[in-house]
Specification:
The protein has 13 helices and no strands. The protein has about 325 residues and is mainly α. It has 2 domains: about 140 residues, Formate dehydrogenase/DMSO reductase fold (Up-down Bundle); about 140 residues.
Length: about 325
């Protein structure tokens, strides 16, 4: 039986750090913003079909253009990290619903073209307008998946810190994506009708991000060795700073002020907080991989939770290995 002390093999890490560069957190950020914006754009299409409000149509088109820019930039960061564009195409040779990475490649491959088609044809007359309407709804479906699949991808790693909190990571990524999309709209869109929409959408995203981040930290810290990166080191500082920026953005967004300056400040803080969160997730994972005690403690706590492991004596083990 293993002893209670979390011994290690000469202090060497059991897991390897990710080889990802800053391209991947930037991909998380751009892809999340694009996905949430496309989802909001599709919802606004339904709204303006009922109310026929010109400003909602313009805001919907702006959302889809954020989707175009974000999904294109995200794809560029991903391909740059892969090293060669052909490697992204190789990922499309397989369609495996049980693999978040395989599904993510297909989601990204569908999100960018549908967003581009929507941006080019939305709000036009005739056949072009019909194409734009239809592609907008398709982009909304791809956008919802794009905003959250990266959280599923991270939660399926073997890194102890994310294995403990994996159930809440997709919610964290979706909330952060909504915060980013609303913050970008706050920075560049000052029409009152649009501000009401982005305020509601952004508030929901910020609250979801704050709550999910708290749940992730609490679940990971249930085992002290696993949650250690949340409480010490540079990744911890980045994680806390991102949380402070998001909270400040929420306070400004809810403040009873009609000033465009206040709105832009809320947007700037929200966008910065979500960007810091994506980098914090990346560096917290690397810090968890470097700590061998985190992996050992997680495995042993899992053994205690599942069931009492069977004890096999040396004699029985030797007898089972003898040829029959």
């Amino acid at each position: 039986m293993p002893t209670e002390s979390a011994t290690t093999y000469y202090g060497l890490p059991m897991l390897k750090e990710s080889v990802w560069t800053a391209d991947i957190p930037l991909y998380y950020y751009c892809g999340g913003a694009a996905g949430a914006a496309m989802t909001l754009g599709a919802a606004l299409q339904l709204a303006h079909r009922r109310g026929n409000r010109k400003e909602m149509r313009r805001l919907s088109a702006s959302c889809h253009w954020i989707g175009i820019i974000g999904s294109t930039a995200g794809a560029a960061f991903l391909i740059h990290d892969l090293g060669r564009p052909a490697r992204f195409l190789y990922m499309l040779r397989v369609f495996r619903p049980t693999s978040p990475m395989s599904m993510g490649a297909w989601i990204l491959a569908g999100a960018a073209p549908s967003a581009i088609a929507t941006g080019l044809f939305i709000n036009r007359r005739g056949v072009a307008g019909t194409i734009g309407e239809f592609s907008g709804y398709v982009a909304g479906l791809f956008g919802a998946a794009l905003a959250g699949y990266t959280g599923v991808l991270v939660s399926n790693t073997v890194l102890p810190i994310w294995r403990e909190a994996g159930r809440w990571l997709p919610a964290l990524f979706i909330g952060s994506a909504a915060t980013t999309a609303a913050s970008l709209l706050d920075l560049f869109y000052e029409v009152e009708a649009a501000r009401r929409v982005t305020r509601v959408f952004g508030t929901a995203g910020r609250v979801a991000e704050i709550v999910a981040a708290r749940k992730v930290e609490r679940l990971a810290s249930a085992t002290p060795e696993v949650g250690k990166p949340f409480h010490s080191g540079a990744p911890s500082t980045l994680w806390k700073a991102a949380g402070v920026l998001t909270v400040a953005s929420l306070i400004l967004a809810l403040a009873p002020s009609k000033s465009g300056r206040s709105q832009r400040a809320a947007g700037l803080l929200g966008a910065a907080g979500s960007l810091g969160l994506r980098f914090a997730i990346h560096y917290l994972g690397n810090a968890s991989a470097r700590d061998p005690r985190a992996a050992i403690r997680q495995q042993r706590s899992g053994m205690r939770e599942d069931s009492e492991p069977a004890v096999v004596s040396e004699g029985a083990l030797a007898e089972s290995l003898l040829p029959r």
